[in-house]
Amino acid sequence: MRRLRNILDRIEPEFQEGGRWNRFAPLYEMVDTLFYVPGTATSVAPHVRDAVDMKRSMITVIIALLPALFFGMYNTGYQASPEAGFLQNMQTGVLAVLPLILVSYIVGGLWEVLFAVVRRHDINEGFLVTGLLLPMTLPPGIPLWMVALGISFGIVIGKEVTGGTGYNIFNPALVARAFIFFAYPGQMSGDPVWSLADELTAATPLAAASSVQGADAVGLVSGAGYSLSDMFLGFVPGSVGGTSTLAILAGAVLLLVTRIANWRIMAGGVAGMVATALLANMIAPASQNSMLSLTPLYHLVMGGFAFGIVFMATDPVSASQTNAGRWIYGVLIGFFCVLIRVLNQAFVEGIMLSVLLGNAFAPMIDYFVLQQNIAKRKRAYAKQ
Amino acid sequence: MHMLWAKSILQHHVDPVIPLPVMDVIRLKKGHDLALQGQPEKQLFSAGRSTLLKIRPADFRGVKLKLMVKEGDHVRTGAPVLYSKTHPDLFFTSPGSGRISRIVSGERRVINEIVIDLDKTDSFEAFERFNEQSIASLSSERIKGQLLRSGLWPAIRQRPFSTVANPDIVPKAVFVSAMPTAPFAPDTDYLLEQDDRGFQSGLSVLKNLTGRPVHLVIGRKASHPLLTRAKDVVHHSFTGPHPAGNVGIHIHHIAPIRNRDDSVWYLSLQDVSRIGKLFLTGKYPVEKIITVGGSSVEKRLYMKIRQGMMLGDILRDNRYDENSRLISGDVLAGEIRIPEEPLGFYHEILSVIPENSDRPFIGWLRPGLRNYSVSNLFLSRLLNNRGAGLDTRMHGSPRVIIPFGNIESVLPMDILPTFLVKMIIARDIDEMEKLGIYECDPEDFALCSFVDASKMEISEIIREGLEYVEKNG
User: Fold this and answer.
1) Which end of chain B is more exposed for a tag (fewer CB within 10 A), N or C?
2) How far apart are CA B105 and CA A180, in angstroms?
3) What are the pLDDT digits (tens) for B151-165?
4) Which residues in chain A touch residue B375, judged by CB atoms under 8 angstroms apart?
């Protein structure tokens, strides 16, 4: 460790003003602060600082994602060959998922470094989370080149074009996901892609629920072989990280206890989903649409709702940034998710678009909350 | 058993005529009390004699100062040394008797420092003196005249902008915040126990000077009768973690500043006592009690010092680490000073904390039992940060604003700090005003800067915003 510190200290001057590698200073900063916490001292008040920094905050999100990731790896193997043992399935899963993550980090990382060098700002840690989120929303069998294109689109168009980290309107991982979905729909929908094995064509629970007109969705799901506990625990086909509600819940608890994710977004999302689903349930008997009869609990455990509401909607930059706004934003996302799932039979996953829609509305929601704050202040002044 | 009963009856009949004041208690929840090592012990020591005192004009904001003396002049304690360009009758006077040995100027004829070599004993400028009863009936003009001439007018500051109070205006209220929550701040009950002269008189002077309400804010547990039974004031009490004791927070909740022309004056408890002493004795009061605290200084205590004493003189009989930072004021809002500089005019704390430049290997991934944090991201939180030290390190690189909510969780004001910061950076005066910039002061946002994961200098940004609005608003 001493040697690494010495090496870094020795090459530092090359990256500073006037040094020959000055334009790559962001790269030096990334490596230097990756291994060693900065030793800079405060120069103005306050003279002491909290130990928390962006790296600590982002690593917490990654740790929160790990249960879903590890389970997802296992599940990928399990779905392909249910009879194989734990180790065998884990191995299959790792071999299938790790390349996705590597491509996402490497290709995305190259874009991050390029923009950091050209725009002369430090490389932001938020990328570590985006790079992991994207593969977890994708089907395990997806070609690597699609992941590369997707993460590129997500970072460049979804983030850098609007100003980079901290200035993005949309969640970059979701923009990447949406790009892949709309650019390569053939490869993304339909049953075959959601499972690794070629012969096994298993429908995802959401696909099963919408497969037959007029039937009861809950019945369709169990008819396809998925019990409620299967879906809660995650032993169903689906995206790499999104099947196990239990694993996602573990991550949610970590995010909430550490206050990295705002609980109002999650609570609002669940509340909005429950309310809309109950409304749909009331209309269900009068309609041929099987999806209307999915109860809130099923909405929660099926598809990517849990993953989206816990890890995607809670991205602090693209969500609403006022506490009151976060409630409205969350409820809106829950509402839209059920709405999209129910209204469009050809398009059963609603969470991706509903979070993106929420992102689009977030600034406006904040604007109205802000106006209220300003009006309240004016009234308090007038009362004096 | 019946002894206790009898005792309680007796206690109920103490002071039958003067009832305890009815006051509102405002409970604040947001904020954080820094668990800093090196708390000052409640023992009062007098600083030894010093041979020189210094005046630092930069201590006073919002005034352009011009010299009334030159090097070699002899001045008495309370004699004018500087005056305000916009108010030539507003004097800044000498805190001691002696010869002006050096006047240090900087760029554009700004005076950086005035050094006074002290005589063996003080000779005082004579000001009017009154007894306690006559103070109650003094006219505003007479009070103002004495304050302006004596050099104690600068003790009165004004919000917005935290400048020396403008003698031409009448504020809508005066605030005396007597419940300090800043790290190492002197306990007000203890201060009054050690020296209770002048406080009530000072309050009466303020009441007559402005004719406006004097709001006295005390802590819930304040027990000294001079605080709880003060006259000519409106009592308030706040509870909660720091910054619940900051005057800006009190003003926000009691008489918020609506626009740049809405003014409030404020003073510290000791400065009120000093004003009282001035009117009772007719002499400029040269002493004040401060605290010395911090993990890098050997003796942590209360000290009686003279205004204008250098930090080196204050710490003469004390030992402190070579690799430490001397801060005039508290660690959250104070200024870095070297031993040759004097303690700030408005400061009552001398903090000495360790400088450190250690770089832990992959520190952001480790459990962090010894990392001080308000967030729940380190193991140290389970022990409430006991065993976690604080030094001068930033603990991270500056990043863009990512609104996790840290900043909002330590600001007990009805202001949205993240949006305000963005509007200040964007230099949008209209939005800054709508979001309440006039109610803000850098010291109220110090904890926001402390907890920010993006390592933004939020106190500085607020200061920049205020300066920008002051000039261009």
Assistant:
1) N
2) 67
3) 999 999 999 999 999
4) 50, 52, 56, 258-259
